[in-house]
Amino acid sequence: MGCEADSFEDDLADLGSAEEFLDYFGIAFDARVVQVNRLHILQRYHDYLAKQEAGRAPEYVAWRGWLLRAYEDFVDSSAQQEKVLAVFRKAEGSSFVPLSSLTG
After folding, report:
1. Euclidean distance between CA atoms 71 and 30, whole angstroms
2. What whole-number distance in Å separates Cα of residue 78 and Cα of residue 88?
3. How confident is the model at residue 2 (pLDDT cuts 50, 70, 90)?
4. Among candidate residues 58, 79, 73, the one with its CA nearest the CA of residue 27
């Protein structure tokens, strides 16, 4: 059992892109969705794992489920709507003041 967990963790350590994660977990995906949202998908995946899997050993079925959920969050939505990255959360609360309004 320990060898399987070690192998899974080793496999995860070798994955570097959203596409590699999706392929590894056998999740069919639309390349256009991933191309536009790859960083957002991986961040959402990380967020789900941090909330649900804290302190647990990595488990293929659970981790696959969280990745599928993270990917599906962006199939019919956008990075601006999902606000995964801090830049989108900060932009929501800020105002734009044109430079021309400061001179006078």
Report:
1. 10
2. 11
3. very low
4. 73
Q: Which helix (H) or strand (E) holds 67?
A: helix 60-73
Contact in structure between 82 and 73 (CB atoms under 8 Å): yes
89 pLDDT above the threshold of 80 = no
Burial 43-53 (b: 16+ CB within 10 A, else e): bbbeebbeeee
Contact 11, 24 (CB under 8 A): yes
- Alpha-carbon gap, residue 82 to 72, rounded angstroms: 11
Whether the Cβ atoms of residue 64 and residue 25 lie closer than 8 Å to each other? yes
pTM passes above 0.90: no
